[in-house]
Amino acid sequence: MSVSASTLRTNEKGIHYYVGLPTTRPSMLASIFRQLCPRCRSGRIFRSSVYWGFPKMNDRCPACGLNFDREPGYFLGAMYISYGLALAVIFGFGAVLWVLTGLRLDKIAIWAVVLFLPFAPMLTFMSRVLWIYLDQTIDPETR
Fold this sequence. Notes:
Blueprint: E1 7-10, E2 16-19, H1 28-33, H2 76-101, H3 105-116, H4 120-138
Antiparallel strand pairs: 1-2
Helix pairs in contact: 2-3, 2-4
């Protein structure tokens, strides 16, 4: 456990305690949802959150310098992740609509796609984050 944001002190009885909260490295899942760098898990991949609007992506991690865009066409693989996530979300919406409404399959498919459309930009950016994490797991960039 890192104690960079805390101070270790000792009281008069010789008991050690921290002033402030000890900082720990966030889990991989938490880092993915918070769009943090896969190497240091403290620098942000996007300049603003993917959940609100269309953020610009940092070229490098502001904390450790990891190059997020390694080569031209690097994010082509993220398109496949985005496609898979989109199908899963549309299928999920369709299953919920089928259970709740009992509509015909063609109407369920149309409504599932319509309900998915507001989530498309967020899934596109999250697929980039997942692609960076997958790439760093398989072929990590050295410092």
